[in-house]
Amino acid sequence: MSKTSLIYRNLFWYRLCMNLLYGGGYTKRFEPIFQELEKVLPASVTEFCFGDVYIARWCENNGIAWKGIDLNPGFVRMAKTAGFHAKEADVLELPAYPPADVGIIAGALYHFTDVELRDFLEKVFLATPVLVVSEPVRNLSTSMGFVGKIIAGALTHTAKRETHFRYTREGLLDILSSRSKELNFSIRLVKEYKNDIILILTTN
What we know:
Layout: H1 6-9, H2 11-21, H3 31-40, E1 44-48, H4 54-61, E2 65-70, H5 73-81, E3 85-88, E4 102-106, H6 114-127, E5 130-136, H7 145-154, H8 169-183, E6 185-193, E7 196-203
Parallel strand pairs: 1-2, 1-4, 2-3, 4-5
Antiparallel strand pairs: 5-7, 6-7
């Protein structure tokens, strides 16, 4: 089991480091997600590997029932203290996910192996018809040189998972395209923001 890095144990440090990596635009990475949610205003959202509560806050302000799943006890505790419905669990170990109008996963797919990603998507589409994906596809470790390498390295250490893998834009689209044929969902590219690509996956 990997030791959780300091960044994942403290929301202040997590936000600080993410803001450094995004050039002060960390919260702006969520705007494309909010814009998509505004188009449909779902009644319910499940956020996988939520970490921060920016999306939860937005949902609360817009009358959307939010549920979050994360394996980090500190983030889950923080979310519950703020009054949000959060569950401490590894999404890959849960047999099923709570039903929702929309699912969201932001900046976490790189923790999954190919097989794990397939299993995750299969369970997602049994619970929701739409999954919003925001994933870094440019190497965060090079965005700030030596400092960026240290921060991005620390971000690979979660309570149970460690990885030095990152998707490229083409690699992520290729693997999702392959899984879309197998699991019968469509892919729509919404936007690219700094290091991230934002996609909408919808069951056919």
